Amino acid sequence: MMDYRVDLVVLSDKEKLNRFGLTLHNLSDVDLHHWQLQFTIDRFIAPESNSQGTLEQVGSFCKLTPDANQVLKANNHYYVEFSIGTAPFRFITDGLDDAAIFVDDGKNTHFLDVSISPIVLASPYSERTSIPRVAPSELSLIPKPESVQRFDGQFNLKDKISLETQTHLAQGAAQWLSDELENITSLKYPIKSQGQIQFIANPTLDKGAYQLSVSEDIITLTAGSNEGFVHASATLLQLINERTHLIPCAKIKDQPRFHYRGMMLDCARHFHPLERVKRLINQLAHYKFNTFHWHLTDDEGWRVEIKAFPELTQIGAWRGPEEVIEPQYTHIAEKHGGYYSQEEIKDVIAYAEQRGITVIPEIDIPGHCRAAIKSLPHLLIDSDDNSVYRSIQHYTDNVLSPAIEGTYQFIDTVLEEIADLFPAPYVHIGADEVPKGVWTDSEKCQKLMEEQGYSDPVELQGHLLRHAENKLKQLGKQMLGWEEAQHGNKVSKDTVIYSWLSEEAALNCAKQGFDVVLQPGQTTYLDMAQDYAPEEPGVDWANVLPLEEAYNYEPLAELADNDPIRKRILGIQCALWCEIINNQERMDYMIFPRLLAISEGMWTQKQHRNWTDFLARLNGRLPTLTRQGINFRQP
């Protein structure tokens, strides 16, 4: 048992203001002197609302210092109340993420471990979802193909089977299929000049489309693109009976509904090692995704090596008690972080390309820039800017200034290296969540507004983003951004808008002439809790997102099928934000099986989609996830 424990209780919750009681227990037989409780919580504690002591907060990181020389006596406790302007807490993960006691007697400093009790909620959700019990279907194909014909007979994946590629377009897919077959059967499947599994080019097939034919003696995979051959291979892998290694004879014709089918992974809030990133990309290939959106920079960490600015990873990739960047979320008593070298990134890009997946980097500007600003203060801080603001994640110092030269030097240099490193024709520049109040008390910003004839500070955001867009065009790249990228009305209609707040925002942008990718938090955010039970991990600011709702997401359902606005929808993306996800097990639990449900919404025409039918196919897929060691949530 630990010597120290912290309890958090919801004392009262109203729609917009909640009162909390926090108790720190000293369960040891020794008095505690010169102490401070440090903890993380991802809501903003109202200043001066604490009933005793001093409370400071930066981001999620809080320091509670008792009144002068207050001793926490042995077998005693310290109690404080405070308020948070928030919707009621519904989940245990709404409580404290981490806690530690910091002791500083003037000579030595050290941390003491603290156990955290589950938060005592005042009003957890009372409802629960239920899923019908359905027997596994024989052909458990996800996402559901356009047409499947079943024939008598089976192809046996016995020894001495080889793969034959009749086109260079199939080289990546053939190697991937060979590796995955070996994982299933423990046999080798060499690529030779002749073989029983044949990859055949058909240039008339659209990108991503494929045909698959299985007879007792031969399997043919036909496509006109590397992506199509990967999708054919993914379907073939799903046809295999993993117990008998037999493949039923069948003929499948298939093509995607949406051209863009993506997933975003946040590696800034918590650093995810290279193998974890590749493991996810491999799963995306199994379910016919073609885009991996890599969120590489944010307030809490800078994760990509920039050779011109080594400080970005020397300083910006790390946080902790002794670091320039304070602890956030977890690991508050120790150093946390990491970054990807340019060589490692090239490795990930090649790995994804083999699997038909394009890697799109995201470098978030002008907000969400605290890690960069802390790393390059000589370049990125306007010391005369006295503007007062607070970002949605509770920072007061995380926005680039559009009125200093260093900002443009930083943006240009970073974008040059990023454009050189990533072969994708796109770069995502974030542009979201710039708080109100920025740039309002800066002489340089006011002067810039006057020179440009701007009347609203939001136009300065547009000014900065237009510069980034023009820079990317010079580098041969197209700019992508969250829906706020069009705030300030300065970027061109070549910028692709990713809509996250709501579908309505996507519709507005499409009507203005922007191409859009739909990623509404309500139906595609995999950090949302999967059910209403308080012990379910996740958040619910957008929605609780059960499997059925993830499956039934139909993009812009109220638009007629023949509405010309639909041509502006490039596709759909799901996302995993990782404020409270710092290990493989939790990541798996939040992603699977909702990833499979969303994959079908991206790929399969809506007339072929059916919830009960999906569940039958999902039940047939779960043993494969088990074999792959994936800690999925039981549906």
From TrEMBL:
Residues of the active site: 433 (proton donor)
EC class name: hydrolase
Cellular component GO terms held in the UniProt record: membrane
UniProt xrefs under Gene3D superfamilies: Chitobiase/beta-hexosaminidase domain 2-like (3.30.379.10), Glycosidases (3.20.20.80)
Domain named Glycoside hydrolase family 20 catalytic: residues: 258-605
GO biological process: carbohydrate metabolic process; glycosaminoglycan metabolic process
Reaction catalysed by this enzyme: Hydrolysis of terminal non-reducing N-acetyl-D-hexosamine residues in N-acetyl-beta-D-hexosaminides
Domain Beta-hexosaminidase bacterial type N-terminal: 139-255
Keyword annotations: Glycosidase, Hydrolase
Source superkingdom: Bacteria
Entry EC no(s): 3.2.1.52
MF term (GO), any: beta-N-acetylhexosaminidase activity
InterPro entries: Beta_hexosaminidase_sua/sub (IPR025705), GH (IPR017853), Glyco_hydro_20_cat (IPR015883), Hex-like_dom2 (IPR029018), HEX_bac_N (IPR015882)
Entry-linked Pfam families: Glyco_hydro_20, Glyco_hydro_20b
The family this protein is said to belong to: Belongs to the glycosyl hydrolase 20 family.
Name of the protein: beta-N-acetylhexosaminidase
Organism of derivation: Aliivibrio fischeri (strain ATCC 700601 / ES114)
